[in-house]
Amino acid sequence: MNRFADELLRWFDHHGRKDLPWQHPRDAYRVWLSEIMLQQTQVVTVIGYFQRFVERLPTLRDLAAADEDTVLALWSGLGYYRRARFLHAAAKLCIERHGGELPRELDALMALPGIGRSTAGAILAQAHGLRFPILDGNVKRVLARYHGVAGFPGESAIEKRLWVHADEHTPAVRTADYTQAIMDLGATVCVRSKPACLLCPQAASCVAHRDGLTAVLPTVKPGKKIPTRAVAMLLLRDRQGRVLLERRGPTGVWSGLWSLPEAPDADAAPTAAARLARVRSIDALPAFTHVFSHYRLDVSPILFDHAAPLARVAEGTERRWCAPADLAALGLPAPVRSLLDNLPEITP
Ligand code: SF4
């Protein structure tokens, strides 16, 4: 075995994480689900979501048979909902093409929605012990520092170099443990700011540690300012406390989730609300900002209490008046759920 893997596995035997829920049992469906949830999200946050998800949908077949609302509701709060939709679509394709199992070939896995080379490698290594490297964000950080690779790891030339290093270090034995070990090292020791090099099994050969470069490697993304957009969210609430929700379209942010009707700004809100219901009282709630990866959204929530449904605005699969008790079963964007959970009492 190579020295890098050898040191890492020795460290893993003492300090690695061996009690994560997706490790018991470590089957392909559970590894896959955990890998998708862990993209952009930390382990501590993922654990609860993972457990609820597998309790409700314990197998790939259960996931494929579930309706989209169920999947999105289980994902609600994790963000990046495209991941959930891809997961769902991939499960259905596995039923159609692969006899209800995740395939064991790299190319066939990568042909499924939402599965890139690193996720495919993690599934093959962790669930089947096959020798495939991974290169998620944590691993990129470790390898960029260890080998002193400068340049933004999102650039394809840099990423290619890191894949070469990832491949050369991946051992043919204990591949599953090694894969977990390098993810753990990045998540707990070689962390983004102030890595704990004194506790690191790779410190003796690490270029960034030797040359004092841990603060500048990996190279950050060249600066990019994100734009700001604004929207007014309309909270139309009837006398029973039900709120009017609309399903968002199939593209764009929060696609397919249930959300609130919108107007371009607070001034346009009363007219937009009057198209949906008869409204009497109007109240501006505290504004807030939600940050997406590519823009900031300034939200002005406007509450219209004592709203009365209009006969011409029909309910159906795209629009419904929803009682507070029914919200838990719906896929809602996290800021909308928080808004609905914290509404003031209905004015008499
Ligand atoms: S020695 Fe420090 S910088 Fe190098 S891999 Fe270990 S924690 Fe990361």
TrEMBL record:
Q: Name one Pfam family in it.
A: HHH
Enzyme Commission code: 3.2.2.31
Listed A to Z, the keywords are: 4Fe-4S, DNA damage, DNA repair, Glycosidase, Hydrolase, Iron, Iron-sulfur, Metal-binding
Domain of life, source organism: Bacteria
Q: Which cofactor does it need?
A: [4Fe-4S] cluster
How the cofactor binds, per note? Binds 1 [4Fe-4S] cluster.
Q: Mind telling me which CDD domains this protein's record contains? A: ENDO3c, NUDIX_DNA_Glycosylase_C-MutY
Could you tell me the Gene Ontology terms of the biological process aspect for this record? base-excision repair; mismatch repair
Q: Which reaction does this enzyme catalyse, per its entry?
A: Hydrolyzes free adenine bases from 7,8-dihydro-8-oxoguanine:adenine mismatched double-stranded DNA, leaving an apurinic site
Keyword DNA repair in the entry? The reply is yes
The segment(s) forming the HhH-GPD domain are: 37-188
Q: Which terms in the Gene Ontology molecular function aspect does this entry carry?
A: 4 iron, 4 sulfur cluster binding; 8-oxo-7,8-dihydroguanine DNA N-glycosylase activity; adenine/guanine mispair binding; metal ion binding; oxidized purine DNA binding; purine-specific mismatch base pair DNA N-glycosylase activity
Job of this protein: Adenine glycosylase active on G-A mispairs. MutY also corrects error-prone DNA synthesis past GO lesions which are due to the oxidatively damaged form of guanine: 7,8-dihydro-8-oxoguanine (8-oxo-dGTP).
So what family is this one in?
A: Belongs to the Nth/MutY family.
What is the recorded name of this protein?
Adenine DNA glycosylase
- What is the source species? Luteibacter yeojuensis
The opening ranks of the lineage are:
Bacteria, Pseudomonadati, Pseudomonadota, Gammaproteobacteria, Lysobacterales
